[in-house]
Amino acid sequence: MDLTVSGGAPFNTGDVIGYRLGRTLVSLGTVIDIAEDLVTVLSESGGNLPPEGSQLQIVELEPLISLDLQIKLINDILSGNVRSPAVDLVIDGYELEPLRPIQSDGKMYSVDGGFELDEYQREVVEQILALRDGELLLVVGPPGTGKTRVIQKAAYLLATRGEKVLITSHTNRAVDNALEKLPLEMAVRVGRPEKVLPEIRRYMLGAKVRERGGEQLAELEENIKKLRNERRKYLEHIKYIRGSGNQPARSERLKRFKEELRKVSRELKELYRERNELLRSISESLVAEARVIGSTLVKSQLDPLDRISFDTVLIDESSQASVTLALLGMLKARKWVLIGDPKQLLPIFKVLKNEKAQEELSAFVYLCRKYPKRVLWLRLHYRSNSQIIRFAAREVYGNEIQPHPSCDNIALKLAEPPRIEPLRPDMPVVFLHVQGSEERQKKSLLNRKEAEVCHRLVAELRRCGVPESEVGVITPFRAQRDLLLEKVRGSEVDTVDAFQGREKEAVIFSVTATSPSSLRFASNPNRLNVALTRPRSKLVVVGNARSIIEAGRQDKQLLVYRFLLYAYELNAIYNWESMSWMTTRRVTKQPTQ
Questions:
Q1: Rounded distance between C-alpha atoms, residue 403 and residue 386, angstroms
Q2: Do 387 and 540 meet the contact criterion of CB atoms below 8 Å apart?
Q3: Of the N and C termini of the chain, which has fewer Cβ atoms inside 10 Å?
Q4: Taking the alpha carbons of 76, 77, 80, 85 in that order, is the dihedral positive or negative?
Q5: 189, 290 in Cβ contact below 8 A?
Q6: Among 366, 15, 60, 337, which residue's Cα sits nearest to residue 204?
Q7: 339 beta partners
């Protein structure tokens, strides 16, 4: 089926689309090609097709399909319609031996050859290569420990020995990052990345289909274009004749034009059929030939991957995937590798307020507790300055990770000396005390004083030569994000949840909260850990130190309070009101009225 889209198609090859029919969404099928304003959709059933010439409001259906697929999977498991070792492993559980010791072959390098894998990364890759059918490996990958390099290397080595590998995640970004360094001829990307990197476009199935279709496809599309123009002219002639009276000569011309129109329409339909068959044939060949395929967990269950099986599946960011969502990917393969971090964001279930219950619904957390002998850690951090990562290493990860010595040399590069003291490059971590207070806006919070300070900090970083794309402003609250977006232009501003898996040269974190209850929300260990581990060289936490210390007196394990103490250890607490560095004694002193 072909759709003519006005204003350009807002979707890409591999998207599952439908249209609105009143309050109902009706599935049309999977986009298999886009050429200018013509979108070709592969429909599995002709029953949902609207009449030719209909005007439709097209929407992407993946968010709804995700829920439908998981509900269907649950029903199939309950009714016994799914027979799979993956289901046995996840739902029922069976005995898995501890990981077998492996004799290392020596040095191992990243796929691009530019980085030597450390002992922990090498052990993970070797254990992946040693997996047998029905076996599971769980890899804890804290921020900056090189999990993407590990995924790339494992996929490359598995593929070179003849295996078919699926790299998947609940997010497009994680899949794109893992594919980026793989040889172009080895890998295919199915679906639509939210922000396609230039390097990733070459891997897209649609791009590869067009390249292989070559002259044959180009000739078909040129003929289709000519016939479409011819058909449009006949339609215009018929419309003109119908509006100019009912004279016999005109009736004869109308009859002749209608006959020509039917003839052109038949030829056009045949060309569409021929082109669509070619596109589908090439697409199926490419998917069958590819040694490594990247897609989201949902797309792995849809055309053209729904009938494809894999030897090994690598599921990244599986801490954020629910058990049923991860199982969709696991069903595709005989061996399973899940990479995640139980100390970062977990799946969000709005009906659940209990954090422990949410943990149990994370595929990674659930399987780590079920199979603790199948867990490996990546333990060396490379991304951030040592002072930045040391807090999370100690307070969140219990010293299970440590910065690589090279992290000591990571520093913010400025073209001009900063006029705002806390932005000095030799101070990687700063807590900036602001005497602001939270304001409730509907169900969220904002803090006007903190927003103004964040604006000043971003402006100064830009003046000092830091690219705006390398500055991020993060907050736990949507209302504060919206206020910051009004003030901060160019640099990325968002909630913590939107920043997982991201990194920036400099990050400004607006605590926003000042009351004990809202500070507890802002101090959620998973959420705060994500926020504080995004920067490479500069972290500025903006908050009300007095409010945090007051809350810390009630709960000494409050993580934002622990961070304030850490900043004190570093002599890195700065008072915005007096424009001076301060000690905890001065922080706790009540302000004069």
A1: 6
A2: no
A3: C
A4: positive
A5: no
A6: 15
A7: 139
Q: If you average pLDDT over every residue of the chain, what do you get?
A: 89
The tokens of 451 are what?
A: 């927003």
pLDDT at 138: 99
* CA-wise closest residue to 482 among 461, 512, 526: 512
Residues 6 or more apart from 178 whose CB is under 8 A from it?
148, 151, 152, 155, 167, 169, 294, 314, 316
Q: For residue 560, which phi and psi values (nearest 5 degrees)?
A: -65, -30
pLDDT at residue number 448: 98
Q: Is the pLDDT of residue 417 over 60?
A: yes
Long-range contacts of 219-223 (CB under 8 A, 24+ apart): 220/271, 220/274, 220/275, 220/278, 221/35, 221/275, 223/271
CB 487 within 8 A of CB 452: yes
Please give the distance of CA 191 from its chain centroid, rounded to a whole number: 13
Which among 415, 421, 443, 435 is positioned nearest to 521, based on CA atoms?
Answer: 443
**CA quadruple 255, 258, 264, 270: dihedral positive or negative?**
negative
pLDDT at 591 over 50: no
- This prediction has a pTM of 0.85
Question: Across the strands, what pairs with 492?
Answer: 472
Q: What are phi and psi of 401, to 5 degrees?
A: -125, 160
Q: Read off the pLDDT of residues 76-129 as tens digits, 9 standing for 90 and up.
A: 999 999 889 999 999 988 889 999 998 887 899 999 999 999 999 999 999 999
Cβ pair 102, 127 in contact under 8 A = yes
How many CA atoms lie less than 13 Å away from 320 in the CB half-sphere? Answer: 19
At residue 561, the pLDDT reads 98
pLDDT digits (tens, 9 = 90+) for 383-398: 999 999 999 999 999 9
Helix axes 545-554, 559-569, angle to 10 degrees: 120
Closest by CA to 521, choosing from 550, 501, 551, is 551
pLDDT-based confidence at residue 197 (cuts at 50, 70, 90): low
Interhelix angle 559-569/525-532, nearest 10 degrees: 40
11 vs 34: CA distance, rounded Å: 9
Neighbours of 279 (CB within 10 A): 21
Length of the chain equals: 593
Q: What is the DSSP letter of 397?
A: S
Inform me whether the pLDDT recorded for 8 exceeds 80.
no
Q: Give yes or no for residue 589 having a pLDDT over 90.
A: no
Which amino acid, 128? I
- Residue 536: closest CA among 388, 405, 392: 388
